[in-house]
Amino acid sequence: xxxxxxxxxxxxxxxxxxxxxxxxxxxxxxxxxxxxxxxxxxxxxxxxxxxxxxxxxxxxxxxxxxxxxxxxxxxxxxxxxxxxxxxxxxxxxxxxxxxxxxxxxxxxxxxxxxxxxxxxxxxxxxxxxxxxxxxxxxxxxxxxxxxxxxxxxxxxxxxxxxxxxxxxxxxxxxxxxxxxxxxxxxxxxxxxxxxxxxxxxxxxxxxxxxxxxxxxxxxxxxxxxxxxxxxxxxxxxxxxxxxxxxxxxxxxxxxxxxxxxxxxxxxxxxxxxxxxxxxxxxxxxxxxxxxxxxxxxxxxxxxxxxxxxxxxxxxxxxxxxxxxxxxxxxxxxxxxxxxxxxxxxxxxxxxxxxxxxxxxxxxxxxxxxxxxxxxxxxxxxxxxxxxxxxxxxxxxxxxxxxxxxxxxxxxxxxxxxxxxxxxxxxxxxxxxxxxxxxxxxxxxxxxxxxxxxxxxxxxxxxxxxxxxxxxxxxxxxxxxxxxxxxxxxxxxxxxxxxxxxxxxxxxxxxxxxxxxxxxxxxxxxxxxxxxxxxxxxxxxxxxxxxxxxxxxxxxxxxxxxxxxxxxxxxxxxxxxxxxxxxxx
Length: 584
Known about the structure:
This protein is an alpha/beta fold. It is built from 20 helices and 18 strands. Strand 1 (142-154) and strand 2 form a beta hairpin. Helix 1 (3-32) packs antiparallel against helix 2 (35-64) and helix 14 (432-441) packs antiparallel against helix 15 (443-450).
C-alpha cells in the first residue's frame, strides 16, 4: 500500500468528515450566535488542518517531482488560490471577527486560538471542496469505468514490485485520437461486463448511432433503453443484394473446407440468382447435367451448405443502410447453426462497410462482442481469405466509425490489426499462447496478466508501460447487478417465469428465442424426450436436432446440455407437465 497511499486515503476521509460537520456547525453557530459551537468548529477545523496538510504536501511533492500521483500544477494552483480567497472572505464577512484583528488577538489568548485556526481551516475546506469539484468536472470529459486497485513497478535487476491502492483513483476513458477499443481475455474474465458498461456510456451521447452484434441474446435488454432489436432469423437482409465476391468470401470464411471448385461454382451461379431458392434450382440443374464426378461432389456439398442457411432464415426485408442511423441490436441468437451466424455476420460487415464508404462521414459505434467467432473459421489458416473484421478495424476510423470489440484470443489478431486500436485492455484467463505473446512485449506484462482477477485489466496502450503497469477493476454493469437479461416491466421480448430449483426458487428471464423453442419442445414429444435424455447424459432419437438448435452438445464422448438447454429444462420442469425426475 505504501505510506503515501495510506496518508492520502486517511486525510481524504477525515477531510470530508470534518468538512461536512464544519459546514453544519458553522451555519448553526452563525445563526444562533453560539460561541460554544464556534469553539467546537475551531477544534474541527484544527483536525481538518492536520488531515489536509499531509495530503496537500503529498500532492505538491508529487507534482514537483513528476511522481505517479494523479495531480498537476494546475490543480495545486487552484487549491492555493481558493484557500487564500476563502481566508480573505471569511475574515471580511464573518461577524465573529469584527473588532478582532491580529493586534487584538494578542490581547486574548482564547480568542486567538479560536479565530486563527478558524480562518485558516475554512479556507482549507473551501480548497478541498474546489479540488473535489475540479476532479468531478474533469471526469465529465470522459467516461468513468472503474478504479485503480494496484500498481506494478518494474525495478532494477528484473524485480517487479506491487503496490496496492486502497482508495484508488477513478479510471476515466476519455477521447483519444484513435477511438477503437479492444478487450481481450479468456472466458469468465469480465469482457462482456466491460463491453456492456461501455455501450451504456456511449449511449449517453444522443448524436451517436450504435450497432451491437449480439450472438447469444445478452444484449436484448437494450430494447428497453432506446435500441431496436433485429432478429436475423425472422427478418434478414437480402444476401444477393451485395457484391458476389463478398458473398463468396463470406461463405469461404463461414464454412470450413470450402475449396476452390465450390468457390468457383458459387461465384458462377450466384451472379445470376436473386434468391436462395433460385440458386438451389440452378445448382440442381447443373448437378443433373454435370458429367465430371468431382464437380458433382462439389455441387452437392455446396448445396448442402446453402440448405443450412435456407433452413435458418425465415424472412427477408432488412435494409443494412438503416442500421447506420439510430440504435440497433442485430441478434444472431435465433440462428441455431454457428456457420450460419458467421456467414451472415461476415456478409453484413461487408455491406455495412460499403454503405459507410458511400455515406461518410458518420458518427457510428460498431460493437462486436465475441469477435473471435469471426476469426476462427474457414480458410483463415490457409490465408485464402482474410476475416473482414480485420479490415474494418484498420480502415473505418477515417469514415467516422468507432469499433468496440472483445475477443478471447489475442493471437487471432495480426499485429497490423492490433496497431489500429487506441485502447487495448488485457484481462485475465489468457491462453498460454497469448501470455507468451505478451511476454515478448515485456517480461513483466506476462506476470501481471497471470495475476489478474475477474473484472480486472490493464491498458496495453498506456504510456510508461515499460516502467509501471496500472491494474484497474471495471465497475459492475447495472444489468449484471440485477441479473441478466435485465428485463423491465412491460418490455417487449421478455417474459418472467418462476422456475423451481432445489432449495428455493429463482426468477429466470426467457427471451423471444427461448419462448419459441419452449413452445416447440412442448409440441414435439420426440424432442422433449431427447432433451431429458441429454440431461441424463444419454443420446436418443432427436439428439441431432437438439444439437442443431443449440440445446445440447457432445463433450469428450458424452452428451451435455448447453446453458440455453438448461434454462429450458428448468422452465419445463414447472410449466411443461414433465416430472422432476426427467421422465415424459
